[in-house]
Amino acid sequence: MLYSHFAVIVVQLANLQIINGEYYDEKSQTKLLAERDIIAPRGKIVDRNGIPIAVNRMGYAVKIAKTSMTENEKSEMILKLISIFEKNGDSYEKNLSYYLTFNPIAFGPRNQSQDALQRWKKDMVVKPDDMKLLETPEDVFRYLRKKFSVDEKYTDEEAYKIMTIKYDMLIKGYTATNPLLVAKDVKVETVAQIEERSHEFPGVLIDIIPQRKYLDAGSVLMCWDI
User: Fold this and answer.
1) From the CB of residue 138, how many other CB atoms can be counted at a distance below 10 Å?
2) Of 188, 174, 201, nearest to 74 (Cα)?
């Protein structure tokens, strides 16, 4: 009797972990992705006559949630995503450019002082001894490319684009339930293309986020008079 119970448990474990492991993994990730915060819209701002000065409009934001992807898969997905942004004229988060720019490769505006530059380098290195590898902007570029596991098959320009997103993943952190904001107020065309190719973008989410719109007082008064 004990043996038969043990055999049933083994069969059930095999079913969960081996046969249907991928299915249950995807299902759990879907559940986690569904459990995320929704930003409430801010109230309207009006002047003393009750005329709106600032109102809300809904905008689309692109986020990335953590999934079980390899670094190479992640790099490929990021580059495809950026390609869609650029094709449709959408901007995306480029916090790396504050510290390291491309074309030319140089230290960014937040690294103008030596103290700021040294602090940033210390935050980037894996081991203290690695500081000696980061003398020039080109050194930092090569170090970060290796740190973020960007394959040599990508050009330097492509590698930098991938690194901009991976940099935010590192410094801001992200999880399955707390995705990373990659781009906000993107065009409808961008949303449609991402959703049409959703199988190429595991973990990529489209959120609707309220955007503040400030109205021109003169045009509001003109419309009010009409």
Assistant:
1) 13
2) 201
Read off the pTM: 0.72
Alpha carbon 149 to chain centroid, angstroms: 17
**Res. 195: pLDDT tops 80:** yes
Measured between alpha carbons, how far is 9 from 23 in angstroms, rounded to an integer?
19
For 148-173, the pLDDT digits (tens) are 999 999 999 999 999 999 999 999 99
Q: In Å, what is the CA distance from 58 to each residue of 33, 42, 86, 186?
A: 21, 11, 22, 11
Tokens read off for 126: 């894996």
Strand partners, 24: none
User: How much is the CA Rg of the chain, to the nearest whole Å?
Assistant: 24
